[in-house]
Amino acid sequence: MNNSEALLEIKNLHVKYGHVEALHGINLRVGEGEIVTILGANGAGKSTTLNAISGLLKITDGGILYRGDALHKMTADKIVQGGITQAPEGRRVFGTLTVRENLRLGAFTIADAARVSDSLDWIYRLFPRLKERSEQLAGTLSGGEQQMLAIGRALMASPKILLLDEPSLGLAPLLVKAIFETIKEINKSGVTVVLVEQNARVALKLAHRGYVMEVGNIALEDSASALLANPDVQQAYLGGKK
């Protein structure tokens, strides 16, 4: 991927929690139409990276560029309006609201009612289970259904880039397979995906490229197929060669 193709670019990014630095000057690029996965152990800085892109964390140095514009100077709501949304780790759906109400909250930046309706129809096609449960309270859904809802809510703003933080967490293997097949379909529709995922094998089979993070640094960057074949990655994240 050459520089002109970078839709999202992170340059020398530093982020601190108080006096503790969580990201030590990372560089990362995402091309339009790609699925890029970020792998690493707990505490490596994966979620911190996504939250910095979303504007939920202030950066201490470096920059984040989106189509060449300084994303790190925008507020979180402007970032959503600009086309970047996130399905957070742990789903964080609004349990006392219905599925439909949760989804409509994802479109809070959109004034065009027809566009909101079209987005809702698309999400119900992607996740038929959500359509069946549209009037059900989100807190009564299963973990897999809540994950579908979190992704659906993030898609309601018609993003150019979808940030996914641990979408497989706590889900049974069959549900993981279904969620990842849907992520592939979302990507085919033209949405660029940045995926943070501890299930490295599933993530690398889905992604085009990947980054491996270790304690706030990028340790490896390569095509997904090369990372799958890398003995160090196999040993550390894939449970040995398979």
In the predicted model, the low-confidence regions spanning at least 5 consecutive residues are none
Percent of residues in beta strands: 25-35%
Distance between the termini: 29 Å
Question: How many strands?
Answer: 10
Major sheet, described briefly?
6 strands, mixed
Structural class: alpha/beta
Please, how many helices?
A: 10
Mean pLDDT: 91
3D shape: globular
Helix residue percentage: 25-40%
Strand order of the largest sheet: 6-7-8-3-9-10
Work out the oligomeric state of the chains in this entry: single chain
Gyration radius from CA atoms, angstroms: 17 Å
Topology pattern, helix = H, strand = E: EEEHEEHEHHHHEHEHEEHH
Structural account:
It is globular, with a radius of gyration of 17 Å. The protein is built from ten helices and ten strands. A hairpin with a 2-residue loop joins strand 9 and strand 10. It has helices spanning 46-53, 76-82, 99-105, 113-126, 128-132, 143-155, 173-188, 200-206, 224-229, 231-237; strands spanning 6-17, 20-31, 35-39, 61-66, 69-70, 84-87, 161-165, 192-196, 209-214, 217-223. By secondary structure, the protein is of the alpha/beta class. The chain has a six-stranded mixed beta sheet, with helices on both faces. Strands 2-1-4-5 form a four-stranded antiparallel beta sheet, covered by helices on one side.
